[in-house]
UniProtKB/TrEMBL annotation:
Signal peptide stretch: none
ABC transporter domain boundaries: 3-238
Gene3D superfamilies in alphabetical order: P-loop containing nucleotide triphosphate hydrolases
A matching Pfam family: ABC_tran
Similarity-based family: Belongs to the ABC transporter superfamily.
GO molecular function, one term: ATP hydrolysis activity
Protein's name in the database: Ferric enterobactin transport ATP-binding protein FepC
Domain of life: Bacteria
Keywords assigned by UniProt, alphabetized: ATP-binding, Nucleotide-binding
Record CDD domains: ABC_Iron-Siderophores_B12_Hemin
UniProt xrefs under SUPFAM superfamilies: P-loop containing nucleoside triphosphate hydrolases
Originating organism: Methylobacterium hispanicum
């Protein structure tokens, strides 16, 4: 089962935000979408979620045009969490997470046993059970992010698209969130995450897609995508590499690449 883009171009105010993007994504993989600020990462995620229509090109889900699908069907099959997402009024965490079951329910219907079970699973996976009766205004930014991630997980969709899921989290919960997303992919979900932390992306993702200036410049394993040459050219940094005690390879952005006078980016 696949989610794909073919020759996708997105325009905004007469400017190309994405240009000629070809991408084929498979379920059961954790894909990190990385690139400098303004590279088009969040726009690409919104195209995959059918929230932005390309000016040219085709977006498909299992070979069928995403734009031609019923909205409820898309909502059941693709769950998305974007930066700045909220609920607009003081709901409890349990009620926020239960919103993830809306695509599975008839209008005005209560939660079924299956819905309740899905909500409970999502809250356990994101460690928000102890926050169940707290309202959104009382949550820290990290607690709020975990509650919203639980809402997305409660959909139990085939695809999970997340925009900067670890930005507001402390280090322990960053590791938990990345491990959770990787576990979801191992269970068969297609996971695509916009990430700024290259160390976490390289450690947890199966595949790294690099954007720069609205174009796809690399698409490979972490080691294949995040080469020294690419890090210097696209991110303007050098990196330190090594192997942890458990054998896991790691990469740490370390220093800015010196810019010669007259060759500023």
């Amino acid at each position: 089962m696949s989610l794909g883009l073919r020759e996708v171009r997105v325009m905004l105010d007469g400017r190309a935000i994405l240009t000629d993007i070809d991408l084929a994504l498979e379920r059961g993989r954790f894909v990190g979408l990385v690139g400098p600020n303004g590279a088009g990462k969040t726009t690409l995620l919104r195209v995959l979620a059918a929230l932005v229509a390309p000016a040219r090109g085709r977006v498909t889900l299992d070979g069928h045009a995403l734009s031609g699908m019923n909205r409820d069907e898309r909502a059941r099959r693709i769950a998305a969490l974007f930066q700045g997402a909220g609920v607009g009024w003081p709901m409890t965490v349990r009620e926020i997470v239960a919103l993830g079951r809306l695509p599975h329910r008839r209008a005005f219907a209560g939660l079924s046993d299956a819905d309740e079970a899905a909500v409970a699973r999502a809250m356990v996976r994101t460690d928000v059970g102890h926050l169940a009766d707290r309202t959104e205004p009382t949550l820290s930014s990290g607690e709020r992010m975990r509650a919203l991630l639980a809402r997305a997980l409660a959909v139990e969709a085939e695809w999970l698209l997340v925009d900067e899921p670890v930005t507001a989290l402390d280090p322990a919960h960053q590791l938990d969130a990345m491990a959770l997303l990787r576990a979801a992919s191992r269970d068969g979900t297609g996971v695509v995450a916009v990430l700024h932390d290259l160390a976490l992306a390289a450690r947890f993702c199966d595949r790294i897609v690099v954007l720069s200036g609205g174009r796809l410049v690399a698409d490979a394993s972490p080691e294949g995508a995040l080469t020294d040459a690419l890090l210097a050219r696209i991110f303007g940094v050098t990196a330190e590499r090594g192997r942890a005690v458990d054998g896991t390879r790691y990469i740490l952005p370390w220093a800015k690449v010196p810019v010669e006078r007259g060759k500023e980016r």
